[in-house]
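If your schedule permits, I should be very grateful for your opinion on a structural question. I have a record of one protein: its chain in single-letter code and its fold written as discrete structure tokens. Kindly check, if you would, that the fold set down in the tokens agrees with what the sequence suggests. I remain grateful for any guidance, and I place the record below:

***
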Amino acid sequence: MSASVQPADPAPADVGGRGAGVFVGFVLIGAAVSVALGVYGKVHTPTERALTTLGFSTLIDMKAWLATVVAVLALVQLFSALRIYGRIGRQPAGRGITVTHRVSGVLALLVSLPVAFACLWSLGFGAYDSRALVHSILGCAFYGIFVTKMLSLKSSRVPGWAIPLLGGLLFVTIISLWLTSSLWYFTQT
């Protein structure tokens, strides 16, 4: 089993609070990423055109379908994480589950990048209605949470509860993004 997705036992540093301090530092870095994306999205003048639609008929079609793929991969992430942490199944998770977790995570990130680029470059930070505002905030938060999780995975001093918490936040954020974009779009067209 991969050490980066294994349930972590609290390290001695966690008892003294130093692990929590490291985690807070990682959260601040992630927050800075989120804020930087939000500020860029707000101050950048949206082009209102797509550089590419990756073969889809419109920019919005591309965003909706790729976001749906990310949501499906997030479900794979959820179930594989539950298996890794022993919440599903009776036997220890095998290498196939940990590989599935990692690969689905990498794919979810890669598929999300054209969507995020289209949102920031072409559409900007949407504050014209509550749905767009919530969606824009969640989109920026996603990458901040992702950065926080990746930094935390590489540290043995982060509290054991941090990785599952961040994974859960990523899942909720992705599904909320999908609800405020793809589902909204599919039900409006």
In short: The two ends are 45 Å apart (CA to CA). Confidence is low (pLDDT under 50) at residues 1-6, 8-16.
